[in-house]
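tool_call: predict_structure(chain=1)
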Amino acid sequence: MTDFAADWLDLREPLDAVSRDPESIAALIEWSRPQAALSVLDLGCGTGANFRVLAPLLGEDQDWRLVDCDPDLLAGGDRRLQRWAAARKLSARAEAATLTLEGAERRYRIEGIRLDLTEGWERLERRAADLVTASALLDLTSAAWLDRLAQRCREWRAAVYIALSYDGQTCWDPVLEQDGWVRERHNRHQRTDKGFGPALGPDAPATLAIRLRELGYWVMLRPSPWRLGAEHDAMQTTLLSGWSRGVRQLDPRAADWLTAWTEERRRLIDRKASRLYVGHWDLFARLP
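tool_result:
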C-alpha cells in the first residue's frame, strides 16, 4: 500500500475538514442518531484525521478501529489524539492497544491496528462494524478490492462514509498551456498499481457507488472539492512537486516542457498569484 508522510497529512487536514460535503455529513448524522453505541472501522486512517472530524458529530458511545499499514503514522496519530482530547478536556487512558477518551457525556474507545489493507482482511472480518469509513483512499484501490469492501459492508449491514476521493478534475488559475497535458498524465499515473492491483483512480467513487446500489444500498455521491487560494501556498507547492514527479515517472520524454511548466507554476505560487481547484467526491451509503 502507498505510504504517506505525516507532514503531508497534517498539511491537508484543515483543508480536508472544511471541504467535506455538508449534505453527506448531515445524512451520516441522521443515520447515526438511533444508534445507542457505534462501532466504526476507519480504513487507511493515517494519523486519525477522519476520527477527529467525525467523532464529535456522532453518538455518545463510540468504538473505533483505526487501521493503517504504517506504524509511525499510528504512533503519531496516538499522540495527536491525546492532544486533541486534552484540548476538549477529555480524560485519556491507554490500556494495551486501546486508547479511551472520556468526558461527561462522551466516551471513545480507539484501537490502532497495523495492517496492510492489500492482503490482511481476515483480521478485520472477525468483528462487524456499524460504520465503515475512510478518507482519500478509494482512488488508490482496484475494482477487485472495492468489490470485496462492498461485499463485506453488506454482510455487516454497515453504513459507508468515504470522503475526499479524487475525481480527476484539476484547474489552475491562471491557466498555462501545459495544464491539460499534466492533468491527463497525472490521471494516468493515478491508475497505476498502488499495491491494491490496477488502481481505478478517478473512477473509483462511481464504481463503489454502483456496486453498493447493486447490493441494495441507498447511496449519496456529492462533490467535495479543494479550493486552494494564495494562503494555501504550501499545499499548492506540495501538490505541484508530487504531480510533476509522477508525470516524469510516467513519461520521461516530458522532462523539458515539464521543468519549464513546474518552474512557472512555482513562480506564480511564490508571488501569491496562484489558485487551484482539485475535485473530489464524498460518498455516504446506508441500507434501507
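agent: Residues 6-170+193-227+279-286 form a domain with the Rossmann fold fold (CATH 3.40.50.150). Proceeding to next step.
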